[in-house]
Amino acid sequence: MSDVPVLRIEGLEAKVAESELGILNGLDLQIGKGEIHAIMGPNGSGKSTLAKVLAGHPGYEVTSGTVTFRGEDLLTLEADERSLAGVFLAFQYPVEIAGVSIANFLRTAVQAHLPEGEELDIFDFSDILTERMAMLDMDVTFAERHVNDGFSGGEKKRNEILQMAMLKPKLAVMDETDSGLDIDALKIVADGVNKLLAEDPDMSVLLITHYQRLLDYIKPHHVHVMVDGRIVESGGPEVALELEANGYRTYETIEPSANGSAPVA
Amino acid sequence: MPVNETVGDLNLDEYKYDFITTSEPVFRAQKGLSEEVVRQISAHKDEPEWMLDFRLKALKVYESKPMPKWGGDLDGLEAVLDEIYFYVRPQDQMERSWDDVPDEIKNTFEKLGIPEAERKVLAGVGAQYESEMVYHSLREEWQKQGVIFDSIEDGLKNHPELFREHFGTIIPTGDNKFSAMNSAVWSGGSFVYVPKGVSLDTPLQAYFRVNQERMGQFERTLIIIDEGAQAHYIEGCTAPVYSTESFHSGVIEIIVKDNARFRYTTIQNWSNNMYNLVTQRAIVGAGGHMEWLDGNLGSKLTMKYPSCYLMGEGAHGEILSIAYSGDGQHQDTGGKVVHVAPYTTSSIVSKSISKGTGRSTYRGLCKVHEGAHHARSNVECDALLINDTSRTDTYPYIEIEESDASVGHEASVSKIGEEQLFYLTSRGIRADEAMAMIVRGFIEPIAKQLPLEYAVELNRLIEMEMEGSVG
Ligand SMILES: Nc1ncnc2c1ncn2[C@@H]1O[C@H](COP(=O)(O)OP(=O)(O)O)[C@@H](O)[C@H]1O
Ligand SMILES: [Mg+2]
Q1: Which residue from A141, A144, A138, A140 is spatially nearest to A101, judged by alpha carbons?
Q2: In chain B, what residues touch A94 (CB-CB under 8 Å)?
Q3: ipTM for the predicted complex
């Protein structure tokens, strides 16, 4: 059983729905239980698209390839079903929901994750929420604010991690959670993720980031480079350090090989 | 007596209170509207001569006025009116205590959740069944304070001078075709008087429903809030589904005297075949404060524009409204504020939701008369469209005769966005639940002003309406 990867992506091709615009062009990726992977890549290489395709965004259409999550076909599930199955996406651009409080939103989401017929105990929920907010250095009054309405960039990102902490996914995809955070906020967010990892060592994480900076705080086991909708290189943490030093320019002229990975010059 | 009922299975587009309770009306006038019917109503109510004259004059005005050519589609209405009973009375007696209310009628209220949800909280309950008050009680201390909370019929009988002084003064018979019709055949409604300086903490609530096929309901309410007094009146109503068209046309007159404060809250959830044409207006004296909180759900067509006439210096008027239009429904609603005196202020906040082939129209008037210097008014109307087939229009009329006035108007139209839905569903929330959540968030600024039980009820209705809205 332990050999079955949490996530296995093979030859994934996806385009913008109702358009011919292909974004993912034969992507392969495998993530094992408890592993932390990082994907780095230039702007526009398709990182967010990959994240959204994994979470089931209806605006993209998978045209080829397979995605298996804990042994099951992920692509046949709706977005809400994927969440219930244990996939979580921390959004690069969290969405504003006017008039809906964070507490109400989270209560509904946590309730949805309970087995059929089980009622969320409101006091338990409230205790857990308070504790999780403290962990992320958030004021309790935050729970009464409307979801992402007038939030600063940092507040939005912290709110994403709060949701993750409440829903306890098997696979957390974090799309540029570090961008827009100052160093203090970055540490708080990274601390939060590390605590969740300590609580559940089986949780797998896919970090999408631009910068090495985040990887100083959340240490990846594997680093992948994505260009033009494919993984063009995979390796250990050293890949990120090389990128930091040399930038992505090296990859731009390289035609990737058929298996999706290319040698580094 | 046997009780026949068909309880709807609370599904999408099924009407929530889709049940019918049989009851034998004691008296029912013939179908359609005629002088004879008007005379019968008046005689049956044992009214003074002046009221019969008032009704008969109103009938003439009604007959002389053409159907309005603006607003919603009234083409099918004439035929409907020929088939309506303009007066039905379920009981001969007014009930004083809950125990005396016949079981069958209690049954109807039970299904509306009145006994549990309302009775204990209610200080005075005026529950209108068919055309008349059935159950009516007033908390003792209010009686001691001189507060009157009666059926409109009792108001006329027991307080003839106060009644006659104010009745028909705020909305003249000839105001519009339907106010004229109501003036001719009115039956049922509330009469409220709150004396000078008396402040009521608990809202006065009236519950009524239409429960007779092809029966029009012509409720008439007159409320007088004397100087420096404060009160809140709440009215919620629901109607069962029938196959034929139905009709409701109310007239609500409110007088808020100097430095008094009053809020009138209505949540109306009519069945899908109802024409709902209501005229409601308040005049506000110096330093007075009037709020309309108006929720319109259901009906085939609703035309309703609560208005505030700000007559005294510093008077304030506020209109908060929520309209929900489902498939085939049209909510033509909004508000009117008329600034007559200096330093008067007003605000209109209107939120509409249209689903399926539903249509919402905002129609508003802000008028500042010459001499109403330093008047300020702000209008905000937001429309939310659920489907591509849903429709919304905005008609804000602004007439300003005073250079020293400030009037603002903002309007927005939004569609439930794919990104919002994805965000919520990616947290495990079902798509229809996510829709309902977005809609509830949209009306939250108004819903939070409602008493808790009404807010809960409104949320439930919206949830039900959103079922099956995705796909
Ligand atoms: N819904 C969409 N419609 C049109 N173009 C899109 C859409 N989504 C993504 N793209 C395009 O696809 C490319 C990859 O976008 P994205 O996945 O956001 O990249 P990254 O996250 O790596 O910066 C970009 O050129 C972007 O403009
Ligand atoms: Mg991105």
Answers
A1: A144
A2: 423
A3: 0.93
